[in-house]
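Reviewers of the previous submission asked for a worked example of the structure-prediction workflow described in the proposal, so we include one complete record here. The input consisted solely of the amino acid sequence. No template or homolog information was supplied to the procedure at any stage.
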Amino acid sequence: MHSTKVKSFLDANAVKYVVISHSKAYTAQGIAAISHIRGKELAKSVILKLDGALAMAVLPASYQVDLTALKRATGVQVAELAGEREFKQHFPDCETGAMPPFGNLYGIPVYVDETLTEDREIAFNAGSHYELIRMSYADFERLVGPEVMSFSAGRAAASVMV
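From that input alone, the workflow returned the following structure tokens.
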């Protein structure tokens, strides 16, 4: 069982959540499809570097990070994707690419796209490619304390995307 750090944190804070098991999947859209969750309600975590420092962008699976919008919203000079080697060691209890959106537990600031705040519940990777956690967005926001801003675009957008 992966990401016991997140589950222990949720349990310690008396948060109600559901663990959803699914067959192995690697893309956020693929996970949404096999677990029968709308792509807008599945939150994906994207690890970035903002002026060289690691950061986590959390947005709906059906959206993409607009690096130009994120740069503008955060006021940094450089916003870019982080390479796997740059962040893998920060998430020792997670499979690469399946990090939960709890950057605060891993010493990484969290930025949430405002579109996620519209959902009563969100689901996200629980540290593995075969397990999700579903919980209320309000509890997530209370526990993580992310900065909420606008930095996503739909799949059809032509800007610099993840």
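Residues 4-12 form the longest helix (9 residues). We consider this example representative of the routine output the project will generate in years two and three.
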